[in-house]
Amino acid sequence: MSNLKYSNFEEDNRIEAMANHTYPGGVRVDPMPITAGQDVTILYSGLLANSGADQVFLHLGYGDSDKWEDTQELRMEKLGWGWAKVISADDWGRTMNLCFRDSASNWDNNSGHNWSFQIHNG
Fold first, then answer.
1. Can you tell me where the transmembrane regions are (predicted)?
2. Which pLDDT does position 19 carry in this prediction?
3. Segment 65-114, tens digit of pLDDT
4. Non-local CB neighbours of 105 within 8 Å, separated by 6+ positions
5. N or C: which end of the chain has fewer CB within 10 A?
6. Residue 2: CB partners within 8 Å, gap ≥ 6?
């Protein structure tokens, strides 16, 4: 997961389309299902974004929801629709787990459940 991709989010119509759909907890992932080798866009407009966070970080890991491996903390980009990050989904067959924190160390972990997505192999 070290090959992070950056995008001009403001010109990406896909991001706007993602923002126009309501999802529990304000987390949107595109594309779904996630296929190994794809760039995946994560858009967050949940609790921290709605509380006026000046910066949001994506906390990302793989494996069982109660035992994350290969964790990373990635700075997200502020948009008119929330916070966004593009990552590369390289680990097929594994579960990708997400939660979020702000610069004041407030966390949004979906009431302790986090957000989990299976990465498929083509």
1. none
2. 56
3. 889 999 999 999 999 889 999 999 887 789 999 999 999 999 999 999 99
4. none
5. C
6. none
97 in a domain, yes or no? yes
CATH number at residue 45: 2.60.40.10
Query: Domain for residue 90, yes or no?
Result: yes
Angle at 101 between CA 56 and CA 62, to 5 degrees: 105
| Structure confidence at residue 69 (pLDDT) | 94
CB 102 within 8 A of CB 55: yes
pTM for the full model? Answer: 0.83
Please give the structure tokens belonging to residue 47: 């609790």
Look at residue 1 in the predicted model and tell me its pLDDT.
32
Domain coverage including residue 71: 9-120
